[in-house]
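hey so i finaly got around to running the thing on FCP1 homology domain-containing protein from Stentor coeruleus. pasting the sequence first so u can double check i didnt mess up the copy paste, my clipboard has been acting weird all day
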Amino acid sequence: MSSSKMRYYTPSRDIKKSPYSLTLKFINTGRSSLQSLKLKTICANAQNMLFDANANSDSGNSPLSSLDESRMFPYIKRETFIKESPLILREELKNIKQSISASQSNYFRKMIEMPERKRFEKTLILDLDETLIHSSYTGICDHHLQGIPNIDFSVRPYARELLEYASNNFELVIFTASQKSYADRILNFLDPNNEFISMRIYREHCIRTEKGFIKDLRIFSGRSMKNLILVDNTLLSFAFQLDNGIPISSWYGDKNDNELFKLINFLKIIKEAPDVRDQLKSTFILSML
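ok and heres what it spat out for the 3d tokens, dont ask me to read them lol
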């Protein structure tokens, strides 16, 4: 993709702030036998819909060449993407719903006129911080970008493979709650030739609440909700459209992490779904908590 085709949505001015990073904090309250039963039920519902990425164990194979269903185990625990118990998730969702009632009508002010769809039916929307990369001011990172401010960051394992796979199977959008001045420097590193990412969207298109930022998918004019998928490490981000979300675990630098590899495997299933909401709802059951 040439740089001339890249779509940017920019604020009236860039504000120099530290990168946005919102991570839900959960309290381990323990589980009763009833809660354990509910969790087992959720795990059972998810078993037939996901694949275990640990099948990528043969040496000499590239991550993408190994993405063959026949090489994968036919099940995976629900905790592949969601680590918290239903009880904790239910309480968090309750708090989220209480915080967003006053923000419901704001999305139309942030509408984006999407270009005519040319190749792929479905749109994959990826978060940036703690989903694709982790940035830090400690200097203990793999990459350093000089500028104002300097940025030290590491790239999550399989992030580049994910971008390559997604760009060949989806309309790929990066939707970050970070400022453009910060995010673009990271994205230019990840996709220097504008080969993968079709559009970049920043904080000004998020819905601000007292608990953080929500990414309301209704802003994507000309795109059907049945074809939109949002991958984010923050549950709050897709609070308005829970059945369009894939909640992925936050990444803080673990070199052995393989969550994005698992995500690629899951996306191979989702891209064939007539309505992604049906698949995601039955897999993660967020809207039913």
